[in-house]
Amino acid sequence: MQYIEVGKENSKKIKLHYEDHGSGDPVLLVHGWPLNGASWEKQELALLNSGYRVITYDRRGFGDSSQPLEGYDYDTFAADLDKVIKTLELEDVTLAGFSMGTGEVTRYIGTYGTDNIKKACLLASIPPFLLKTSDNPDGVDGEGFNQIKAAIKGDRLAFLAQFLNDFYNMDLLGGKLVSKEVFQNSWNVASKASPTGTYECVDAWLTDFRKDVDAIDIPTLILHGDADRILPIDATARKLKNLIKNNKYVEIENGPHGLIWTHAEQVNQAILDFL
To answer: Which residue out of 58, 64, 80, 228 is catalytically annotated?
Structure first.
């Protein structure tokens, strides 16, 4: 396996597992919680078949990357992404984030700029700001996130099954657009993630990305399912489209949060058209 070192924890190196395939213009895919880089399977194949170089990596704490006890915040995640870009010497790269991965892409741009970034794709996005506050009244009530943390702490594996049911809208799409085997594989991947990382990432979801969003000055694809139960579209994508000037906005009808699998054909076409 291939790894990029991004830091140290006591005597151990913190390393990110990555895959780098194909040639042509580079596209770097940043995965969602609580999965890994392989969750981009359907997009990776479509991009490779269209002549792109495709890079995926596992966020710290997830997949085959190291599982440290710290660093589960978006400043650290963006620094990890920067290390990947610099180590692989990527130029004019398109950054594509899904779900939690959209936070990495957005914070990276807000911190490091877009000099070397050609385009951005934000799929099932968490920006601009998820938490309900006095200046964000349409956000999500914070008590819901406390309940998520309590459920993870109480029985992480049971919570993951519940989460993935809503991730794929299994009650409506199970056996049709997503098989029980795909669901089980997602649970298997999630179950092997760092318990600490799984828990600590919940706080990261409440990051305010509004200043980072203001820094996005490159063409950006915003794509979201209108049946997303994890990151409701009214609190995320429909706000985001009014904040990024140069954007292409796509709503997937009846698309759940995990639409990169359930509605892969539509998602892939939108990405390829945008690129």
So the answer is: 228
- Asked if residue 216 has pLDDT above 90, the reply is yes
Residue 99: active-site member: yes
Beta strands in 181-246 (DSSP E): 220-225
Could you say which of 17, 224, 257, 263 is catalytic? 257
pLDDT in tens, 117-152: 999 999 999 999 999 999 999 899 999 999 999 999
Written as six digits, the tokens of 91 are 């130029």
**Tokens describing residue 108:** 């990276």
Are the CB atoms for 216 and 109 separated by under 8 Å?
yes
User: CA 208, CA 160: separation in Å to the nearest integer?
Assistant: 25
Confidence of residue 232 (pLDDT cuts 50, 70, 90): very high
Strands (E), the chain: 2-9, 12-21, 26-30, 53-57, 93-98, 117-123, 220-225, 247-252
Choice among 39, 99, 186, 194 that is catalytic? 99
Share of the chain above pLDDT 70, in %: 100
- Residue numbers of the domain that contains 253: 2-274
pLDDT at 1 over 90: no
CB 241 within 8 A of CB 224: no
Q: What CATH number should be reported for the domain holding residue 18?
A: 3.40.50.1820
Domain count, the chain: 1
> Residues 209, 126: contact at Cβ < 8 Å?
yes
